[in-house]
Batch of 2 targets.
Target 1
Amino acid sequence: MGILSTSLGIGATFGGLYALRRWRENQWESCKTNRRLDGQVAIITGATSGLGKVLAEDLVNRGAAVVLACRNTTAAKEVAAKIKQQCPEALLDVVELDLSSLESVRKCANILLERYPQINILINNAGVSIPPKMGIKTVEGYEINFGVNHLGHFLLTNLLVDRLIASTPSRIVIVSSKLHEQGSMDWEGFEGTKEFEGGKRGPNAAYCSSKLANVYFGIKLAEKLESRGVSVYTVCPGWNYTKLFRYSSVPFYSWIAIIPIAFWFMKPARIGVQTLIHCAVSEDTENETGLFYRDCKVYQSQANLNTKTINELWELSCKLCKIEW
Ligand SMILES: NC(=O)c1ccc[n+]([C@@H]2O[C@H](COP(=O)([O-])OP(=O)(O)OC[C@H]3O[C@@H](n4cnc5c(N)ncnc54)[C@H](OP(=O)(O)O)[C@@H]3O)[C@@H](O)[C@H]2O)c1
């Protein structure tokens, strides 16, 4: 009797939690468009896991030819093979891209320009969140979060932008985060000439600042591409169960607080990706550019979007990538 009632109690608790979670998941926004992308070419950076992987599946199912631009090409080929199992007519390609090396970015762009006379959608999705105290730098010696999340994508976009302009109407989606509101421009920290101010502003300071750089890039890029037929969207996917925070160490006791918060606020990637789809595909966003999106809606950033700082970041990025733009 005791075992039976305990088992029933445990079953009812887990069943209730499951139902509550399903209800919660249904509250989050989803992109409703059924739009097809037949004949279009989409490039997604970082599609071996998390949001990029789910987005690749979605765009392939809409008929787009999707290029997985990834650092781990073995993992990317496995992702492509799995998608092909479910969708045998899928058009998929894998191209090596290590955003922490500007040489790799250039090689990737050359391959893409050779293979694809048309590029309609570029999703700057790949990202890392690495505490600055780990002291990891890019191949060229720049701070790793800034280098991968912003600078590598800045160069990739520059190298592909003429092809996107020639393929209009086209779209560029920059995956940022609401955490950009906690970021700041630590110029010397970015360049790697001084340690990033992580100690003072928490272990995610460099990540938040790289995501602010994403927002500044989106604003300036939209301005540069105005009237050229290329729309630019900056996106926060919300808080998702992915591998992003794999380098963050959380003390054991903190899990007691984190688990209930995660239960209520963390999304599976298939839900987090909805705002990316809204910006990459939907008819609703077709005539918009230069805005920030969250939960499939425009979101007003609370960050200081100062024009002078936006221009300074653009100039620094050109200098570090050795380009004029
Ligand atoms: N998850 C969240 O809660 C959350 C919240 C806000 C914003 N975001 C943003 O969402 C985007 C996608 O992240 P995710 O959550 O899906 O994380 P994820 O599962 O860790 O995926 C990140 C992807 O980026 C790739 N990547 C990492 N370093 C790279 C490099 N040097 N060159 C090329 N690719 C590299 C990873 O490839 P490997 O397999 O080779 O590592 C992986 O495919 C990121 O920009 C992130 O900042 C996520």
Target 2
Amino acid sequence: MKTYKKLSITLLLMSITFFACSTDDDENDNTIEPPISCENATNFIFEEKDGLVVAEFESINNINDWNNENSVAGFSGTSYLVWKGDQFLNAPGNGLLTYNINITTTGTYRFIWRSRITNGTSGSEHNDSWLRFPDASAFFGQRNESIVYPGDTGQTPNPNGSSKDGWFKIYKSGPADQWKWQASTSDNDAHDIFVTFDTPGTYMMEVSARSSFHALDRFVLFTENVSLSDATSETAELSEINCN
Ligand SMILES: [Ca+2]
């Protein structure tokens, strides 16, 4: 009788241990820590230097409902952020990511992100997210002489396709199975993205979910004094991050 009781307790303990281990395994994907942690997430600031900002999307503290993953190879930094929730094709502001940037070199910067499609083989599905600079002096898309402004800002013309409440839909084109530096707006009429900061200070960059399975790796902002290849180089130095 005693031996039977002992065996039962042993089996119970083994079950608990097994269950605890299984739970740990399931949580591995979403536990990648950012490089530094600020007590107040809104005080997390990227420092522009010599007309260049280089930042990993995964480096902020509050990633809302995005997933922080590292299973699709070829990313830079420690991981990438991918949206796996509902699609918000005409409703920006969901799954909000905020990047505060301290600008000392005033002027117009080009913006590009490095992103990837992580579901299926189509190059035109799961290939976009929303972007907004709500307190910048200007935020626009440009292709040669053509300029477009985000919808609902009172400025025209607006891009082809979705744009709302000052947000641009930012997409990549080309094959689905590769990370790519590209940030375009206006459907079938790709305009590059620019943002102007007229005075030194801290500005907000906002990203929100649009297509599911769009993965964001790294972004850069650079003035005309910095080349595209230098800004997007693998060896470009990451911007300093401060907690103010
Ligand atoms: Ca990254």
